Amino acid sequence: MERKDMIMMKDGKMMIMRNDEMMPMEMDMTMSDGTKIMMDGTVMMPDGTVRMMAEGESMTMDGGMAERMDKMEGNMEDKTEDM
């Protein structure tokens, strides 16, 4: 399963996952829908709503929230147990 490029909060730091390679976020970013993500994890939605990203939370480059990585890994473990 290929993962999309995304921004995520990992170990309290904002990280960029690009081409299955994770690297630290080096500057604030604006997603294609206008959502702004700051290096401290602050997220400003296009409507002005402000929130903080939680540990393990991620956002795709188009501004969509992705399923938490820990939940994805847990779901994968659940599926392999069924096999």
Task: Characterise this structure.
The chain has one helix spanning 69-82; strands spanning 6-10, 13-18, 21-24, 29-30, 36-37, 42-44, 50-52, 58-60, 65-66. The strands form two sheets. It has a five-stranded antiparallel sheet, with no helix packed on it. Strands 4-5-6-7 form a four-stranded antiparallel sheet, with no helix packed on it. The relative contact order is 0.20. The protein is built from one helix and nine strands. The protein starts with 5 loop residues before the first strand and ends with a helix. Helices cover 17% and strands 36% of the residues. The longest helix is centred in the last third of the chain and has 14 residues, at 69-82. It is of the alpha+beta class and 83 residues long. A hairpin with a 4-residue loop joins strand 8 and strand 9 (65-66). It has one domain. The mean pLDDT is 85.
Number of strands: 9
Q: Sketch the major β-sheet.
A: 5 strands, antiparallel
Helix content: 10-25%
**Low-pLDDT residue intervals, each spanning 5 or more residues:** none
Strand content range: 35-45%
Overall pLDDT metric: 85
End-to-end separation:
18 Å
Q: Strand order within the widest sheet? A: 3-2-1-8-9
**From N to C, what is the helix and strand string?**
EEEEEEEEEH
Describe this structure in a few short sentences.
This protein is of the alpha+beta class and 83 residues long. Helix content is 17%, strand content 36%.
